[in-house]
Amino acid sequence: PSELHKQCTEVLKEFCEETLGVRVFLQDQDQEIKGAALYGFHSPGTSEIHIASTLQDTAAFSTLTHEVGHALAHGTLDEFFNIGSHQKEFEADVMSIMLQQHYGLEITDERKSHLVGHYKSWLESDPKNFAPDKSIKKMFDLYSSQVKLLDQKMIQKFPELAQKLLAPEIEPNPEAKLQKQITRKSIPKKKKTLRR
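^ thats the sequence. predicted structure below, dont judge the formating
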């Protein structure tokens, strides 16, 4: 189990519940999640995400990022019923990969395989509506609209983790950054003297 992935999962769960209004449940596979390939699901009717509690931390985070993709892109019943299943799975995988890459986390082979499989199945089953570029743009726009809010949640909950994972320009402690700026401005600069 990865403590890093566990903390990322906690932050993402809190983000879903507080920012997106989507409740996240970790539960035993035999409660509602059935089938060897089913690790989690998003229910647009109840605004819930269910993740199998038997998953290791890395798989749980990968699954949750995938289900967040569904919540963002397929969160209404209209979106859920009017988009083909392979397109929905492809889009959710795109979101999962973007979120994991944003935090510098390795993409699991299973996630890559899932994406490729649904890409091919979408092409074969619905060639008229096959538009992966449009789907990637759609998911990137959704990602861009949410990632700063997610980063702020990470900064609040796990500042040390945020410092490790986030880009250097994101200051986990904005007060410290402000203090540095004030200190720099308040220290008088030495005057340069001309030497002859």
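The first strand starts at residue 23 and ends at 27.
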